[in-house]
Amino acid sequence: MGTEQKNAITQNHPAEDPHLRRGPRGFPLLPGGYGRSTYYTGAPSPYAIRGEGYRVWDDRGHELIDANNNFTSLIHGNAHPEITEAATKALTAGASWGIPNLYEWDLADLLLSRLPDLDQVRFANSGTEAVMSAIRIARASTGRERVIVTKGGYHGTSEVALVPGGPSYQRGVTQGVINDVTAVPLNDVEALRQEVEAAPESYAAIILDLLPNRAGLLRISEDFVHTARELATRYGIVLIIDEVISLRLGFNGFSGEYGVSPDLLTTGKLIGGGFPVGAVAGRAELMAEVDPTRPGSLPHGGTFSGNPVSMAAGAVALRLFTQEEVKRLNHLGDTTRDAVNARIADAGWEIRGRGSLLRAVPSGAEKVGERTQHELWWASYERGLLGSPANLLSLSTPMDEKVAEDIADRLTDAVLAVADGTATKGEK
Ligand SMILES: Cc1ncc(COP(=O)(O)O)c(C=O)c1O
Known about the structure:
Elements: H1 3-11, H2 18-22, E1 48-52, E2 55-58, E3 63-66, H3 69-72, H4 81-92, H5 103-113, E4 120-124, H6 127-142, E5 146-150, H7 159-162, H8 167-170, H9 175-179, E6 181-184, H10 189-198, E7 203-208, H11 222-235, E8 238-242, H12 253-258, E9 264-268, E10 278-282, H13 284-287, H14 308-320, H15 323-344, E11 349-354, E12 357-362, H16 370-382, E13 385-386, E14 392-394, H17 401-419
Parallel strand pairs: 3-13, 5-6, 5-7, 7-8, 8-9
Antiparallel strand pairs: 1-2, 2-3, 4-10, 9-10, 11-12, 12-14
Bound molecules: pyridoxal-5'-phosphate.
């Protein structure tokens, strides 16, 4: 981006306004200066100005490879022309209405055609809402209250979903809610079996993320998943697979790669084409819980649930994410991971993940401290690579082999700088 263009953009940029930075009462108008806690990288953040394809430009004059992709949701990168056109068309037709719109059917059809064992879908505004609704459907249909999750997993910010994050995530959550959630260690098949068999009739749901990012982006073992499926079937527990992030890993979602059928599947992110979205897909007898034509059905709303802009953009995003593109992007991720791993192993780091999702962590680490995560975020940023604050990188379809090689070089360099202690901490 030229200096002139940058100046034109930043001239009226709110973040440049000292009044907004400090606020009328002497502190920022946004808590800590941030509109989302998940943006936080330990030092004042750059502001995004513009994005196109796999690139983003910020207010500090940096051109970045966008491997954050708004936390994995921009599967086709920034401002994809066909998605932009569909969203604009929906927007100019009226943005959102208080009666159903036809776009919902299109996205439902596209999503369910990829989830052959599931019958119906209900849209929401976020992954958080989707998981929240799935849990309520499971509880209502089983008449039970407790749920099983895996330790350290993340399923959004509803109260139940925060429990597996441990004490710091549980602040503000009632003890009653905490008591209803059992967190078993990832891939500990025996612990899962024991917990369920100790009181099978108390459990409404088992919730699994097959590649839990916050638990270190280690994939769940086949044995663990199939045991969860078997226990759920045997004891009438609802198996919820949370594919808010992982749906991108297979044409039929990541559960399709495992060959496991959930009773309910939650998703979001990529299926909104860059706009707010969440979805619960499920078997018809469970989805009947939110069927308003049935007496006593569960209330489900959301003023913007199923809004035409998200639905229209999401439908194009899914259509463009063909079987071939899923494969190509996963292959690109695999080669990037292998290339970086070969160059950072001696420095005591590794790249984890699967397909188009990658994350650098100190070798074998179960938990990575926030300071280290932030150090790597800044080291990557200074080398023109934008990841998530927890260092999750996701590829997007505008990327090709050349971009992937570029990502591998920048990431290697950033990891090595953190490993040898020469990385700065965002003071630039
Ligand atoms: C597995 C998983 N579930 C749920 C959520 C919550 O989704 P959202 O941020 O759209 O509320 C996330 C968010 O990253 C997630 O990774």
